[in-house]
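Dear H.,

Thanks for agreeing to be a second pair of eyes. The structure we're designing against is below in token form, covering all 502 positions.
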């Protein structure tokens, strides 16, 4: 109508560009507000223990470069969309367009195809993001609930580093930890207490070379390396690591008695595959080091909760191999956090100047180790939900526009005898068709992305068929629900009013 009344094509194009850029700019502004809220929430959700190891984590903000990029993206998107529709609007045949308007079509078939293509693309991308989010969430749930070889529940942990200037002699160190473990174990509500060089999910652990008695010489390039753990006798009881053969350490394994060692199942199989290792001897470190007699075999413990990696580990009693910095583990009958003041008091009673640091439950220790996967899963979930909302909005907008533009056609159909359920089925069926086409395109893309993620996060991400099918059905349901309201509008069209209006 504007072109027929004399408006220039440039003026029409300018109006469409202004409207498009204005809308995209408002969307970008809303996006920045949401992004800032998301940033603040994420800064508060990352554990302080993790933040202190990430340079600049406390100074994360939306800076000028982010604002400039967002503004440029918004303007570019607005110009691109505006130019596309301006080009389409200014190249139409006036006679055909006016005829279509008189018939109530309201838009050419190419316009409907373009809108349909956009909705199909939205659904395909939404399925990709939702499938990735589902795989991440399912992977994190598997990690959080996996059996890591120890019981993480109701265990309080903290670390102590005895100063070299005050604890010069190994006997002083052994006496301090022996008294502290005894005091902690005697506290009300405590089941048992122990000390260890490192605990699962503490990232770093010592390594040592080993040579088993009767073991053939190492081949060229072969590295026989095991993890070195120094523990007090109660550590296996505290962590509930099963003793598979032999025994755990006892107070009789003193500094002047025979050197003893407890191996985990993986190391025992590597040194003496298919043989009984009890009573055999192993030398750790250089050839000048004394032989250690194997007195027990314990279950494997996953040192890396993400990969479920169970390295070969040799456990030594603190009475025979002394370290000044150890981690304390206290198993309680109730909430371990309630024991923190009492545990600090016991340390202060032994040495008022000795600080306690990194106080966390063992569950929190494992959860903090999984923070990266957890945050990634949360981000993927948020992006997947955003894509789901955009897809629903696209279906709703397309169906609402289609119903508005086809009032005349709907009126004719109903005047010729079409029932409400026929119109409802027609509108919803068209929306579901678009959604199914989008999902048919999105399924291969989603599978490809899931396989790509699984190669990067091996053991964490895998194709979860129930989750994948569930999200696909969810998208189909969203399409039906998004089309239902416009469909209801269509069934309420009065044939006489629609025909008279047209």
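And this is the sequence the design step returned. I haven't edited it by hand at all.
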């Amino acid at each position: 109508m504007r072109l027929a009344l004399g408006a220039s094509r440039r003026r029409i194009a300018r109006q469409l560009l202004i409207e498009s850029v204005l809308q995209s700019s408002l969307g970008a502004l809303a996006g920045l507000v949401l992004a800032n809220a998301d940033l603040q929430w994420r800064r508060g959700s990352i554990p302080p223990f993790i933040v202190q190891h990430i340079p600049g984590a406390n100074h994360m903000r939306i800076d000028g470069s982010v604002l400039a990029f967002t503004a440029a993206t918004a303007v570019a998107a607005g110009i691109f969309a505006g130019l596309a529709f301006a080009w389409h609007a200014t190249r139409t045949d006036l006679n055909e367009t006016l005829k279509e308007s008189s018939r109530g079509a309201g838009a050419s078939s190419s316009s409907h195809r373009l809108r349909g293509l956009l909705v199909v693309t939205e659904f395909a991308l939404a399925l990709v993001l939702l499938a990735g989010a589902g795989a991440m969430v399912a992977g994190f749930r598997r990690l959080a609930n996996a059996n890591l070889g120890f019981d993480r529940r109701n265990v309080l942990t903290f670390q102590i580093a005895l100063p070299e200037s005050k604890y010069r002699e190994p006997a002083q160190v052994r006496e301090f930890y022996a008294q502290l473990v005894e005091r902690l174990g005697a506290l009300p509500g405590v089941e048992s207490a122990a000390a260890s060089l490192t605990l699962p999910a503490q990232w770093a652990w010592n390594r040592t070379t080993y040579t088993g008695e009767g073991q053939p010489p190492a081949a060229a390039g072969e590295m026989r390396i095991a993890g070195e753990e120094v523990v007090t006798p109660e550590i296996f009881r505290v962590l509930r690591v099963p003793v598979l053969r032999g025994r755990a350490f006892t107070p009789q394994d003193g500094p002047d008695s025979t050197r003893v060692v407890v191996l985990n199942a993986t190391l025992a199989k590597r040194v003496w595959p298919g043989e009984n290792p009890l009573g055999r001897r192993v030398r750790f470190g250089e050839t000048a080091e004394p032989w250690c007699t194997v007195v027990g075999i314990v279950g494997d413990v996953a040192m890396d909760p993400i990969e479920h990696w169970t390295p070969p580990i040799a456990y030594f009693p603190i009475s025979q191999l002394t370290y000044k910095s150890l981690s304390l583990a206290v198993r309680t009958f109730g909430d371990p956090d309630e024991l923190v003041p009492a545990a600090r008091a016991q340390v202060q009673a032994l040495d008022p100047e000795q600080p306690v640091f990194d106080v966390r439950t063992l569950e929190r220790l494992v959860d903090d180790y999984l923070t990266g996967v957890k945050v990634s899963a949360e981000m993927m979930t948020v992006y997947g939900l955003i894509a789901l909302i955009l897809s629903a909005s696209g279906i709703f907008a397309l169906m609402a526009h289609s119903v508005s533009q086809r009032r005349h056609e709907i009126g004719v159909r109903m005047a010729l005898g079409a029932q409400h359920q026929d119109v409802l089925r027609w509108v919803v069926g068209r929306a579901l068709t678009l959604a199914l086409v989008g999902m048919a395109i999105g399924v291969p893309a989603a599978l490809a992305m899931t396989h790509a993620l699984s190669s990067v996060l091996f053991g964490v991400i895998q194709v979860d068929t129930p989750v994948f099918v569930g999200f696909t059905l969810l998208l189909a349901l969203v399409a039906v629900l998004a089309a239902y309201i416009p469909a209801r509008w269509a069934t309420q069209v009065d044939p006489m009013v629609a025909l008279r209006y047209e």
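Two observations from my side: Residues 388 and 474 are 9 Å apart (CA to CA). Confidence is low (pLDDT under 50) at residues 102-106.

Warmly,
E.
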